[in-house]
Design brief:
It contains eleven helices and nine strands. The chain is of the alpha/beta class and 305 residues long. The protein is globular and about 55 Å long. The structure holds phosphoric acid mono(formamide)ester.
Length: 305
């Protein structure tokens, strides 16, 4: 199992054993949160799309381990504006940094960046495709809050078509004998290439648009916002916005220990009153981004094995 110089582009590039090894390193990072492990190392964060959690938690992780960060959060201030290609941008950045995190609206952009770069490239989200570091923090959170990963009943609700965090998480959890419940209108259901894979692996899964239909079965409900920025037609977004809302009334119909996760940002799909209930796990989930990203940086920069 080798992580040094490894790109982190898709969760499909990681085996079950590798994912479990990463979670072990994350636990070590939680035990020793600060230090000089990455002293002298430079991370470039190239964000062509907005971000709060991913960019700031990578920055914080790097700085807590004594590394430094360069980069941009707005491509309008870069030479992309003059017509420079993504390929050339990456060829330049690899001269300035030991690793690169990229977020870009185009699916496949992180893979292209990894082809251009000789330093490790980490995908911070490419369009509707993948968000592998979010998935690592999601499975770390599930392991912590449920005490296990195996055999869980996991619901996904909201925009399962465009929600890249759902796509990555379904693949990762498929290693752990789950039962999935995909809750969305037909137009926003999980793409067929994912369900074809679930059929192939004989993983039990159900599709419905009714939030309450399987509510009593769930160990975890993973809520997503409707991804306004991905809709080709704004009128189509208007049709679906606000379609699901998790509130205290809904929580009357779930197991006492059912946990609600959300990659955030939320818009209106989880009522704020839910935050103070024993079901809310989304802020703890976001906090887990720090040790997870520390572990990944230390692994790909060859500072831990
Ligand atoms: N979960 C997540 O990717 O959040 P940001 O878009 O704020 O980075």
């Amino acid at each position: 199992m080798e992580f040094k110089n490894r790109d982190v582009i898709s969760i499909t590039d990681f085996s079950k054993e590798e994912l479990l090894h990463i979670l072990k390193v994350v636990r070590q990072m939680e035990q020793k949160p600060k230090g000089s492990l990455l002293k002298g190392k430079i991370l470039a964060t190239l964000f062509f799309e907005p971000s709060t959690r991913t960019r700031l938690s990578f920055t914080s992780a790097m700085e807590q381990l004594s590394g430094t960060v360069i980069g941009f959060s707005n491509a309008n201030v870069t030479s992309i504006q003059k017509g420079e290609s993504l390929w050339d941008t990456i060829k330049m950045t690899e001269q300035y940094a030991d690793a690169i995190v990229i977020r870009h609206p185009l699916e496949g952009s992180a893979r292209l960046a990894a082809e251009a770069a000789s330093v490790p490239v980490i995908n911070g989200g490419d369009g509707s495709n993948q968000h592998p570091t979010q998935t690592m923090l999601d499975i770390y959170t599930i392991q912590k809050i449920k005490g296990k990963l195996d055999g869980l009943h996991i619901g996904f609700v909201g925009d399962l078509k465009y929600g890249r965090t759902v796509h990555s998480l379904v693949i990762a959890l498929s290693h752990f004998n789950p039962t999935f419940y995909f809750i969305a209108p037909d137009e926003l259901q999980i793409p067929e290439n994912y369900t074809e894979e679930l059929f192939r692996k004989k993983i039990r899964h159900f599709k419905t648009r009714d939030l309450e239909r399987f509510s009593k079965e769930l160990d975890v409900l993973y809520v997503t916002r409707i991804q306004k920025e991905r809709f080709p037609d704004p009128l189509e977004y208007e049709k679906f916005k606000g379609i699901y809302r998790i509130d205290e009334a809904f929580l009357q119909h779930v197991k006492k220990d059912m946990k609600i996760m959300h990659p955030l940002p939320r818009i209106d799909e989880i009522d704020k009153n839910v935050d103070k209930t024993q079901h809310a796990a989304y802020f703890e989930q976001a906090a887990n981004g720090i040790p997870v990203r520390k572990a990944l940086l230390a692994l790909v920069l060859g500072k831990v094995r």
